[in-house]
Amino acid sequence: MDHNENMKKACDLAELSVKNGAGPFGCVIIDKNTGKICAETHNLVTIHNNPTLHAEIVAINNASHYFCNFDLSNCILYSSCEPCPMCLAAIYWARIDTVYYGNTKEDAANIGFDDSFIYDEMKKPVSERAVQMKQISCDYPHIAFDKWVEKSDKIKY
Amino acid sequence: MDHNENMKKACDLAELSVKNGAGPFGCVIIDKNTGKICAETHNLVTIHNNPTLHAEIVAINNASHYFCNFDLSNCILYSSCEPCPMCLAAIYWARIDTVYYGNTKEDAANIGFDDSFIYDEMKKPVSERAVQMKQISCDYPHIAFDKWVEKSDKIKY
Fold first, then answer.
1. DSSP β-ladder status, B26-31 and B75-81
2. pLDDT score for A1
3. Are the beta carbons of A70 and B138 separated by less than 8 Å?
4. Which residue among A35, A102, B17, B32 is least packed, with the fewest CB closer than 10 Å?
């Protein structure tokens, strides 16, 4: 696995992203077993008008589609920048266990992105966050959880 | 705004989700200005084989599409469960400032979901996380950032 070559690809995609009118972030996902690229993407937030379409999310979407599997534990992810909390959590949900990155979240903060701020928010208790989060206490939310526990043929993820 | 009614809708969607073979989570996004629903979704991870398709992400995708805008600061989000770090960070990126939720991340952990574990991972320094994260030091990553800074007609998000 040529880590530098894969990182260069992610960074070339980040450059292309700026040219295309999106944020300066690129991502490549490699199949560990074959060394082949299974996703190569860049940020699409302002192109698709969708705040979730960071390069890593788009890459995970594409790699999941490629393998027809929500479990990407056979993959390595290369990102031109340290993943933000949204993308890092997506990496955990995808069971990807190795990530290589270029710029840091502090570098991203220095050019106006909220990565570092959101990492700080994550560490706070619910009541102290900038986003107001209020629990509604009622019986409804438990019903689906109970049905999930009872379901014998559920697909765990 | 009838918070209990909106929460009931999110919870009904969570129940439907289990019936449909997906995770027990539902979400509703409401336009603050009109009180109208602009997205009502449930988890799709195992249905679409995509680990990013939590109810809140699908709802933000749909609401962005509805408004043709990556900025959803005009919206309130109702989730049947406290958002995981991926979804919470997506809420920040979408500029949604108010979230109502039902079950907690501890409730989710109790039925086998990793929400609480991933919150704990977020708080750790890069070197101590379960996911191996390695920075590749080279000049490439800075190029796209420099081009972003120089770009006069960029769309910030």
1. antiparallel
2. 81
3. no
4. A35
